[in-house]
Design goal:
The protein is α/β, with parallel strands linked by helices and 286 residues long. The protein has a single domain, classed as Carbon-nitrogen hydrolase (Nitrilase/N-carbamoyl-D-aminoacid amidohydrolase, 4-Layer Sandwich), CATH 3.60.110.10. Helix content is 26%, strand content 26%. The chain is built from 6 helices and 14 strands. The chain has a 6-stranded mixed beta sheet. Strands 7-8-9-10-12-13 form a 6-stranded mixed beta sheet, covered by helices on one side. It comes from Lysinibacillus halotolerans.
């Protein structure tokens, strides 16, 4: 089985209305569909662009205002997924859950159904500056093209959670990210490669580019999309199907061959999933 995926390097810039955000988002979807893509990934925190809209009396919006856009956000991407018959991982959006802010990834199915995965590991900035709360559990999502998970940015730096996802049958991990400098970017990029090798899965990664001069902690972005494979003979030597140009407004597209994953898990040069020493550390399949 094959599936085609596209990852958006979303360009953040100041906008004047929700309609501006909607038009930009649909632009990327239309561009991806020119390549007949089936899954489109947007970055983490890309909806912070909405905070560049001026509030009443010219008031600057803050992270606490972002959940007020949730209904419009969900309606927009649900409609777009149905209109274009495509799966959209619409990055992350900050929602309010029982008075707590949660950085939450959203999966929109072609029939308009919505599934969510809250970020499980929260960075110090998210805690100290934005008062974010972590999610409470790992979800996996069944699609017509197999089982996927969505692990946001910092999540991919924790091997245990990806082990758990693979044990639940996941073949493709979508990783929306948002990093403001080279250090953060490379942490996420290097660990994405590690997780692909350890678990013999695909990792689809993307990040924000551009800047939001009026939004705290979104004034700088350093991003690049990548479609990452295990490192074995059927795949490219660097474990990389495609990558974007750093900090450019663009998207990347590639085909994922799930049969190749199953082949290397059984007969690869290394069989990292099968060769786990579960006598020494937890077996997440049990």
């Amino acid at each position: 089985m094959k599936l085609r995926v596209s990852a958006v390097q979303y360009h953040l810039h100041t906008i004047e209305s929700f309609e501006d955000f909607a038009h930009q988002s649909e632009h990327y979807i239309k561009a991806a569909l020119e390549f007949e893509t089936e899954f489109i990934l947007f970055p983490e925190f890309f909806t912070t662009q909405l905070l560049s809209i001026k509030g009443e009396n010219g008031r600057a919006l803050t992270i606490n205002d972002l959940p007020s856009f949730t209904e419009q956000y969900e309606s927009l991407f649900s409609q777009l997924a149905k209109k274009y018959n495509v799966h959209i991982i619409a990055g992350t959006h900050v929602i309010n859950v029982d008075g707590k802010l949660r950085n939450t990834a959203h999966l929109f199915y072609p029939d308009g159904k919505i599934k969510t995965q809250a970020k499980l590991h929260i960075t110090p900035t998210e805690v100290d500056e934005w008062n974010m709360s972590p999610g409470e559990g790992l979800e996996v999502f069944e699609t017509e093209k197999g089982t996927i998970a969505i692990l946001t940015c910092y999540d991919i730096e924790f091997p245990e959670i990806v082990r758990m996802a693979k044990a639940k049958g996941v073949d493709v991990i979508f990783c929306p990210s948002c990093t403001d400098d080279r250090h953060g970017f490379h942490r996420v990029r290097y660990t994405s490669h590690a997780r692909a090798i350890e678990n013999q899965v695909y990792v689809i990664l993307t990040g924000t580019v551009g800047a939001l001069p009026t939004v705290d902690f979104m004034r700088a972005n350093f991003g690049q999309a990548a479609i990452i494979t295990p490192n074995d003979v059927p795949f490219p030597p660097k474990g990389l199907l495609a990558e974007g140009e750093i900090n450019h407004d663009m998207l990347v597209t590639a085909d994922l061959d799930l049969d190749l994953l199953y082949q290397v898990r059984e007969k690869g040069s290394v069989t990292t999933w099968r060769d786990r020493r579960v006598d020494l550390y937890p077996d997440w399949e049990k």
